């Protein structure tokens, strides 16, 4: 079993500690908040198209809410760990679990989606599809592992790159977050060739070949359990489970609230679903909740109140599950998410969450406006990548290809690098775009919109 004293570290890539009134882990949170990569999330689609006359969540507001839930989970987990391990915790560890675990979890939650390209999973699919469709002309230029990175392009791995990669003209090691926070982000701590949907920690992959060495440093320092050498695989870090749970809790409930605001789900249906979920955890408290609802006249405010109660209940139940399963988590043997375990121990809540999930799939994720933007986003991202990816690998470019390269900012150009590094630069540029910027650039290079940019 992993030693609870050894799974956190305030070490950073290439940066020494500096004196500050904040802890190293508080500094992580602030660095993320003030980063341009985080700021760009405000114009990246969560589920519903942006912008609209009715405000719904985008990637930034979603990340802020996940961070809030993560802070609560981290606080509850820290209290439990201090109570259970008080006899073996070192002074530094005692301070960490009492005062900084929640900072690590909230920081990791804050940037859990930072690697997602414009248009979310459609953007990921478009990038992967470009390489699949051009395998004959491109594959021979890369190693097998490099090629697998591309044909299975993954936002989780891209997050590690954004947070650690030094771009041309930028400061050392990007955001340089602590190793504790970086480890907490890695839901799938393996390289792309290790992907295997039979295992929870290998359903996707967590780092590109370009960041493999840095990830090995993070894993070694935070004592992640190695599960394979070639390909490189680790068991999930114990903090990851809390970050994943915070995300699961938020999107299960908040997507439902957004669908209510947009009129996709009937008010009474939405209210009944949330009331049923609350009752499954606290049947004795239902009358009090109903009484409170009677005092609220605004329909959106009613749902907001029920959303808060639902999330509060899920936080408490998830923290209990984490406590119950901490031993297999520390051993690297847990193969179910915390929210799945909540469902297993509470059949009534499982039924309601299953109904919410079924409704979301049928009426939210397959709503015509969502499907439209997914299709449009796929085409936009595919065409942008095809415009830049071909020319970047050529040494003898045509004039039009030279013009295409001039549209790429210099920090993404690696003319002296390998083909893999050159292509990653293009992916850094394209995947970092917001929905609006990607759409605008697509319209301009396709000649749909012509003229001086303001």
Give descriptors for this structure:
two-stranded antiparallel ribbon, Hypothetical protein af1432, 22 helices, mainly alpha, about 0% strand, about 450 residues, 2 strands
Question: How would you sum up this structure in a few lines?
Answer:
The chain is an all-alpha fold and 454 residues long. Among the domains are: 24-110, Hypothetical protein af1432 (Orthogonal Bundle), CATH 1.10.3210; 145-234, Hypothetical protein af1432 (Orthogonal Bundle), CATH 1.10.3210.
Notes on the structure:
Strands 1-2 form a two-stranded antiparallel ribbon. The chain has helices at residues 24-33, 36-39, 59-85, 91-99, 101-110, 120-133, 135-138, 144-151, 155-164, 179-185, 212-221, 240-261, 267-281, 286-294, 299-324, 326-331, 338-345, 347-364, 368-392, 399-406, 419-431, 435-445; strands at residues 226-228, 233-234. A hairpin with a 4-residue loop joins β1 and β2 (233-234). The chain contains 22 helices and two strands. The chain has 454 residues and is mainly alpha-helical. Among the domains are: 24-110, Orthogonal Bundle (Hypothetical protein af1432), CATH 1.10.3210.10; 145-234, Hypothetical protein af1432 (Orthogonal Bundle). Helices cover 60% and strands 1% of the residues. This is DNTP triphosphohydrolase. GO terms for molecular function: dGTPase activity. Pfam families: HD_assoc (PF13286). It comes from Moheibacter lacus.
């Amino acid at each position: 079993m992993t030693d609870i004293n050894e799974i956190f570290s305030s070490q950073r890539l290439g940066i020494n500690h500096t004196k500050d009134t904040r802890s190293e882990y508080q500094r992580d949170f602030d660095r993320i908040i003030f980063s341009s990569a985080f700021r760009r999330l405000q114009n990246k689609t969560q589920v519903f198209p942006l912008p609209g006359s009715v405000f719904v969540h985008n990637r930034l507001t979603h990340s802020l809410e996940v961070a809030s839930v993560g802070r609560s989970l981290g606080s509850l987990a820290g209290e439990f760990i201090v109570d259970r391990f008080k006899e073996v915790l070192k002074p530094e560890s005692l301070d960490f679990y009492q005062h900084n675990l929640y900072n690590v979890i909230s920081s990791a939650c804050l940037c859990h989606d930072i690697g997602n390209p414009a248009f979310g999973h459609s953007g990921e699919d478009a990038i992967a599809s470009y390489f699949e469709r051009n395998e004959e002309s491109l594959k021979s230029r890369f190693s097998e592992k490099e090629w697998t990175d591309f044909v299975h392009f993954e936002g989780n791995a891209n997050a590690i790159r954004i947070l650690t990669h030094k771009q041309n003209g930028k400061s050392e090691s990007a955001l340089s977050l602590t190793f504790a926070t970086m480890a907490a982000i890695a839901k799938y701590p393996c390289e792309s060739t290790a992907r295997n949907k039979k295992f929870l920690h290998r359903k996707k992959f967590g780092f590109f070949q370009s960041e493999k060495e840095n990830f090995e440093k993070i894993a070694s320092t935070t004592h992640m359990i190695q599960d394979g050498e070639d390909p490189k695989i680790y068991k999930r870090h114990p903090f990851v489970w809390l970050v994943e749970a915070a995300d699961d809790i938020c999107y299960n409930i908040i997507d439902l609230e957004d669908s209510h605001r947009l009129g996709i789900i009937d008010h009474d249906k939405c209210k009944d679903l949330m009331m049923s979920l609350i009752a499954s955890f606290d049947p004795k408290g239902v009358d009090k909740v109903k009484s409170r609802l009677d005092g609220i006249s605004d329909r959106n405010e009613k749902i907001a109140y029920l959303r808060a109660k639902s999330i509060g209940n899920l936080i408490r139940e998830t923290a209990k599950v984490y406590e119950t399963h901490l031993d297999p988590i520390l051993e690297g043997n847990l193969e179910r998410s915390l929210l799945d375990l909540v469902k297993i121990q509470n059949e009534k809540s499982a039924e309601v969450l299953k109904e919410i999930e079924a409704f979301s799939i049928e009426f939210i994720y397959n709503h015509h406006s969502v499907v439209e933007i997914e299709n449009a986003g796929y085409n936009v991202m595919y065409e942008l990548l095809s415009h830049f990816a071909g020319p970047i690998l050529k040494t003898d470019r045509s004039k039009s290809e030279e013009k295409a390269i001039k549209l790429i900012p210099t920090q993404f150009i690696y003319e002296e690098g390998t083909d893999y590094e050159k292509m990653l630069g293009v992916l850094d540029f394209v995947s970092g775009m917001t929905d609006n910027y990607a759409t605008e650039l697509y319209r301009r290079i396709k000649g749909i919109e012509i003229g001086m940019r303001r």
